[in-house]
Amino acid sequence: MEWVLAETLLSQSRDPRVLLGALCRGEASAERVETLRFLLQRLEDEEARGGGGGAGALPEAAREVAVGYLVPLLRGLRGRPAGGADPGPPARHHRRVLRAASAALRSCARLAGGPQLAAALAEEALRDLLAGGPASGAEAAVEVLAAVGPCLRPREDGPLLERVAKAALALALGADRDRDEAGPAEDAAALAAGRLLPALGQCGGAVLRVVWSGLVAAGAPSEPDCVRPQLLVLSALAERLLPEPRADRGPGAGEEEPDARRCWRFWRTVQAGLAQAQDALTRKRARYLLQRAVEVSAELGAHCTCGPQAGNGPSLFWWSEKKKDELLKFWENYILIMETLEGNQIHVIKPVLPKLNSLFEYAVSEENVYYWTINGRTFRELSVHQVPRPADRKWFSIGIEITEVFSHLCFSSSRRNEEDVLQCTMITHQILLRGAAQCYLLQTAMNLVDVEKVSLSDVSTLLMSLRQEESLGRGTSLWTELCDWLRVNESCFRRASASISIGLPETSSLNAYVKNLVQEYIKSPAWETGEDCLMPDWFEAKLVAMMVLLAVDVEGMKTQYSEKRRTQNVLRIFLDPLLESLMKFGTNAYMPLLETDRCLQVLLKLLHTCMLKGSSAQDDEVFTFLQSFVMSATESISEFILRRLTMNELSSVSDLDRCHLYLMVLTELINTHLKVGWKRGNPIWRVISPLKNASIRHLQEIDSGQEPTLARQIQRVISMAALAMVCEAVDQKPELQLDSLDAGPMERFLSSLPLNHTLQKPHTEEQSSFFEESSASQGWGKIVAQYIHDQWVCLSFLLRKYHTLIPASEGDVLEPILPAIQMPVRTLQSALGALTVLPSDQVLPVFHCMKVLVPKLLTSSESLCVESFDMAWKIVSALSNTQLIFWSNLKAFVQFVFDTKVLTIAAKIKGRAYFKIKEIMYKIIEMSAVKTGVFNTLISYCCKSWIVSASNVSQVSLSSAKNYSELVLEACIFGTVFRRDQRLIQDVQTYIENLGHDCAANTVIENTKREDHYVRICAVKFLCLLHGSNVSHKLFMEDLAIKLLDKDELVSRSRTRYYVNSQQHRLKNRIWQTLLVLFPSFDQNFLNRIIDKIFQAGFINNQASIKYLIEWIIILILHKFPQFLLKFWDCFSYGEENFKTSICTFLSVLSHLDIITQNIPEKKPILKQALIIVLQWCFNHNFSIRLYALVALKKIWSMCKTLHIEEFDALTSVIESSLNQVENMPGTGNAKKNWQRIQEHFFFAAFHPVQDYCLETIFYILPRLSGLVEDEWIAIGKFTRFTDIPLDAGFQWYLSPAHLCELKPGDWAQQDTGSHSGEAASQSEWMDVQKKIIPWKNNTPDLDLELVFQDRVAKLGKSISRLIVVASLIDKPTNLGGLCRTCEAFGASALVVGSLQCVRDKQFQGLSVSAEQWLPLLEVKPPQLIDFLQQKKAEGYTVIGVEQTAKSIDLTQYSFPERSLLLLGNEREGIPANLIQQLDVCVEIPQQGIIRSLNVHVSGALLIWEYTRQQPLRHGDTES
Fold first, then answer.
1. pLDDT at 539 over 90
2. 1155-1157-1160 Cα angle (round to 5)
3. 1342 exposure class (CB count in 10 Å sphere: 0-12, 13-18, 19+)
4. Taking a C-beta distance cutoff of 8 angstroms, is the pair 1407, 1385 a contact?
5. Are 1431 and 1323 in contact (CB under 8 A)?
6. Is residue 256 helix, strand or coil?
7. What is the DSSP string of 325-353?
8. Higher confidence at residue 332 or residue 1058?
9. What is the rounded distance in angstroms from the CA atom of residue 426 to the CA atom of residue 486?
10. What pLDDT, on the 0 to 100 scale, is given for residue 1314?
């Protein structure tokens, strides 16, 4: 278009002065300036070709345009905005004019006829650039320089070029320093780097050397902001700074040019871009430079090495022609991974992960040490991905192993990256994954860090980034690995600048560091010694406790075989300052408050951290010493706590945190004394009683008409918290019971307290000081909530202690001694009130009280109980997204709503409570579909509560459980189909669990068993405990079995798509798995009721895994109860249309007839009946039916021969002939492969229905072998790990005794197709297309069919007609439409269809695209096909079937006659047996896959094409 415009202008006038002068007049619009550019470029092209007119006129005109129009225009654009990140229309117009004017100026400089104009313009633009800076029109000056720079002469204008290059480089590198003018500066810098510097690079090596010297002088970037401009310049000049392998290297090619590959600063800049750049464009430039350097090295082929700045460290880059292929592969993988990680999507990242193996192995090999990295941001993003399958043990979720791999490749910013990744891992709610990530990241750090460059302080800071309760537990494998790493590298860590003398010269640096750490921690700063100071943060206490125990365990490793007492001595040295301070607590009332807080904090953390995870603490000498340490200081600490809690010393809001600390320490002291041995006269005993009495006294005090002060209200809160602690301690440890079981003063006082009593705010004068406290202080609402919470803690203790005193109705008690207990209705109403005022994280004690009250009141106050159910459920359901408090609240909720007594009473009265419980039950199941683990809590609790009664042979509770059998039913079939990301999380969690103690997170974190599989596991193990001899158990299981069969029937009738691994498929599979588990409890009477439903299920089109289960249970029924064989024989007497291919189910059962008849003494009648039935199915036209019939026939006939039954001798010839033919089938065609595969299939070759009956086969082996998705495989290890439901020690149903577990899924899979199955369900698993066995032809001599057909064609001579395609058997209009189009395209003479009405079908027309208008169509209905085929045979046609028989010919080897009639079979049934005999030849399409057959249209198209391809060749041969 530009060329056309320029030609149009030139056609108006050939005088350039006139044209240029006309364009230079008027307003300088973008269109006008661009037109000027088009014209100048056209004139420049003509001048270059020597066709320009007016030799003197054109240069003069060009100079006039440049000096008189373009330069003033560019000057006028300086002060106008150039646009920023989001330029508006004026800015875009300005930039458009600027670019067009600079391009026009370049053409003027070339047309001017000499270098003087270019030099003059460059000088002027350079002065403007240096004078004004980037904020004042720099973009216009840069455009001028970029335009005229290539016109300058390298030698004559060398100094000018150098000055321009220096100015351009300074502008490009200084953009990030000009923060005041960020927009213009960035634009000018980008223009200088992207246009000016590459333009100057064309002027030769001198300019490049100037630019390169400037880049080298700038040094490697130390800050991320410096990386961007340097990479911008380097990427713009990459073609010049990296050597070119070609000879034509432009001006100055003979001079030596820079080679950036040999400069360490270049590689440091690239590394910084990969590791530190925050924007994707900068990282892309770094990858481009790396890729370009690799490409150049490969093309040059010369050796190249770039070492570090100093020292003998690993090479930054090296190249060797000898290892060209290996190096190319390494760098290609590296760059591919870097580019892929930018995608930040799981499905994009996953395919490149296998390349990490080769990358890692090559990078750290002995000869190939690399010093490379990945971007820190990408490192963090990668670390929160769940990518590979857990089956691959090398790589798995959260980038854990990926982090470990890259830790060997990089050191840059490693610790910062580690800390960033740790922060990212804390985001996920999956605690186990979070813990595993921390474990592997710590291992990465230990492998990654250069110990000589970090100090122990750095190490401790990194360790504090971990959550010890999730990963770094003492006694775990990770803790041991960390101790060993500290021991090995102890002397290598960077030491502090000032060494600290600790009086122990023989101690190591770690011990010195820890001792100093303890001493500095205990000291309280002088400016924080006041009484009103806030309690210190827990961070330092955690740090000190962890480092003390690490140092002690490291010392224990050193003295593992000698000086056992040295460990205790080292620990004593560490803790002496702490013990000295603790011993002063009881006597020194003036100790700084901050010091006491710190001492108690570190003591508490020592006790928590010291506990060994996963092993007994009895043999731990550190824990033993720490116990004795605590015992020695107990009296001092307990007296201090008693004084602080009871003597009104805690009077501010911040003191509530201290109260919490004191009560936690007191609880730990109680636990320690209980472990050592409780003695009545110990210090704790002497403290609890005064603490209880003082707390009651404070709570009983009444301010006589005065407004409460802040100090008094705080003391009331503290007293109630102390009483709650005492109640919890006594409730959990009966040894602490201070009074008799009779109600004492504390019980009477607590029972008489007004429930939900709120504390008044302090009066106005004190509110100011209250609200001026630190922002960390709690609001008054939280304080009141804590007070009410502690009230209910005390009340729940009383209710559990005196639950026998709770009356069924309040009218039974005249003068209650304990009002809260003996007036339960009022207490439950108060509980409902408490739920409305308490925050969600404080309602647990209220739920505990409801658990005691509701069973007592359900009969008399049902509406109140239903209201409590409703309100409690609203609270729990609202917490579903709150991970920390949801699970504890859900557990408490389930325990009081689904309590055995509540369920029994509700089922008995069948009132509102019964239906409300069922409603909540289904809501919980519904919630579990989106929140994994919810249903687990419910089913586990219910099954455990029912088991207790069942084990006591109590039929009442299990009879009650029958009213809630829907719960067990839903549990047996539970399991959601997760999204891909959810499934990855589940898979990875399972993988981590399977690692066991190798992953420390498994040891530290309690296995919550919230995976969906555990719902079914719980239900199955519960069913395994039930016994058919128990009437209530038997009735429960029979009711469940009937509901399962009804559910299966409902799913089968559903119109939902039923395809492999769909939700419908999985539901049916789980139903039949559960029925198999229940089978041993079925007796004959019950089977009489359900046998018809089981047989009917065999006629339904099912997926392979379900058919195996149905066949299995039928075999077991017939084996245990042979009297049902009569009903089984009746299944074969239905009409054929009711069977379709599902008769294969019953034929598969017959293939196990030896097991069915195992307990039957007289087998002959059964064998006779089986032979009669199976023989007739051997002649069925359907290939799969015949194949299954032959398998059954082979099994039955072998039994007959073993028993020597003479009555069957008459059938010997037919049966033996059929079996011999299929066994000795010639060639290696598909039919023979299918016969071999079905015989080798596990269900017929290895599976034993009786011996393999076990949980492992039902839930793991069979799903795996039948092609079910891995989500449905339940490993037997999960059954054994789930200990909530214990099975008897003699339970033998776990493991399969056979070798099924060693088998792999085969090629053969059984599957039906049905009309409602959908497209996905119609894809069967057969290996190849059909082969028919025709036993009645076995007595005739074999004919060479191909020779017969060739002879017939030779006799017929040449035919005018070419090809007739018969599609009368095809039903689907889409296939007919496609065939019509194919036949017309390849010139078939006619297409025969079953009905011409099909051409009106829209689906037909959509595929045929009007081909029916140009192709002859004939109508021949299927019943008329025999006559039609015989008629065509008489006319000389060869009838060819697309079918496979024992004598079928490979399509690639068959030569089509000219008169060919192609008969295509039905989509599902193929060519019927009555038409097979009409065929002259059968042609088969060779296949390599495992799918049963090709689409009929595709098959027809292949044969039509092959016929069309052969005919021209034959005609050519004939003519020649």
1. no
2. 140
3. exposed
4. no
5. no
6. coil
7. HHHHHHHHHHHHHHHHHTT--HHHHGGGT
8. 332
9. 26
10. 37
